[in-house]
Amino acid sequence: MRFNIILFSILLGFLVACGEAESEKPKAPLSEQELKFEIYDSLVVDYLGNLMLMDISPDGQNYLMIDQNTDTIFVTDTQGEIKHKYYRNGDDPEAIPGNRTGLGKFLDNQTILIPGSQGIATYEISGKLKKVFKPEFTGMSSLVIPFNQVHDASGQKVYIYLPGRYSDLGQQGLDFQKNSKRLEVLDLNSGVFESVMPFPKESKYSSETQEFGSLDFYTTFKIEGDSLFLFFRNEPKLFTYHLSNLEKPARVKSIPYPEFIERKVDDKPVNGGFNMRDFFLGTNLSLFPTESGDFLIQYLTGLTDEEANEVTSAAGTDFNKMFEDAEKYNGGGFVLFDGSQLSPIIEKPEILGTLNKYVSKDEIWFSLNFSEAENDYSVIYKTRLVNQ
């Protein structure tokens, strides 16, 4: 018995020592961490089409999806069974106001928000229209990316990228940069839209001497808790706001991309529009605040002038070929950003397409990369972020 007690004490001491050694082992700097998206589950839907996951209900019981080819909306359960299917564009009396400008989102377990160029609509989960909210101005957008998230919600307020209020200033230019604001806030109780967030003084887009194009400052943002995180398409900076003060950022962090091609200072943009060169500048694509305080970011480095000229000249008017050819030059991908350091590019299996929904580092949903697989069903992949 005494021998057993001694043996147990030695073993316990060994385990404690190992635990201390493990906890004291220094964690590699973010800039040296090799990360990857690891597939560990999937949601299969018996539907032949190009489905993208838009959102998951707060209770986790319903998945909101859209067919990227037909714009048909689907709601499935956790097993992938289709519960509802409907189309809400066009002249239908229950259609969204104007053209759909971004992804739909659950407001609560039974209500869906869908943004349009002329306002925002709420629907029951079955697709029945609940209410349409239209601003007092006519919506206007020079760039619509319908598979981006252009709105987010906090309580009874919806924050939305809905250009048009400052149409008297045009869509770009020095007056626009000085006097316009970036977002609208919709109060769901009153139905009133409020303009918020001027270009921050820390941004190059607040310049009163250099003009930028509307494509350059296309706005991407995400709300987490009482904070709103935002960046502009062609500026390597992350702006953090408190929801109680959207007039100026609480923090501004430069993102140290190894390469990120910005518009040249002497390169004046096309008035009220853009040319093909603008599409091949450095691009902030998506932003996801994580539960550990850092950010999962997707970006493209952009093409040099020589590379862009080569791509556009070779493709002529074939835009599909143009963007396909650009891929051989365009670097970037997904990275983690902790406010000072960037991780190396995160490894992503070829079968994964677009990142559709970030829940946590242990639950990240991707659509299928349809160029890598042709199935008679649709599948959404569930991944986690792991160290290699």
Give a description of the structure.
- With 388 residues, this protein is mostly beta strands.
- The chain has a domain at 30-47 and 135-387.
- The protein contains 4 helices and 23 strands.
- It has helices at 2-24, 174-179, 305-315, 319-326; strands spanning 35-45, 51-56, 63-67, 73-76, 82-86, 105-108, 111-116, 119-124, 129-133, 151-154, 157-160, 181-187, 193-198, 219-224, 227-232, 237-242, 251-254, 283-289, 295-300, 332-337, 352-360, 363-368, 378-387.
- Strands 1-23-22-21 form a 4-stranded antiparallel β-sheet, with no helix packed on it.
- Helix 3 runs antiparallel to helix 4 (319-326).
- The longest helix has 23 residues, at 2-24.
- The radius of gyration is 23 Å and the shape is globular.
- It comes from Algoriphagus formosus.
- This is 6-bladed beta-propeller.
In what range is the share of β-strand residues? 35-45%
Mean pLDDT: 90
How many alpha or pi helices? 4
Largest sheet: 4 strands, antiparallel
Spans where pLDDT lies below 50 across 5 or more residues:
1-25
How many distinct beta strands?
A: 23
Strand order of the largest sheet: 1-23-22-21
- What is the molecular shape? globular
Return the structural class. Answer: mainly beta
Order of helices and strands: HEEEEEEEEEEEHEEEEEEEEHHEEEE
Head-to-tail CA distance between termini:
45 Å
Kindly provide the radius of gyration, computed on alpha-carbon positions and rounded to a whole number of angstroms.
23 Å
- Overall helicity: 10-25%
Protein name: 6-bladed beta-propeller
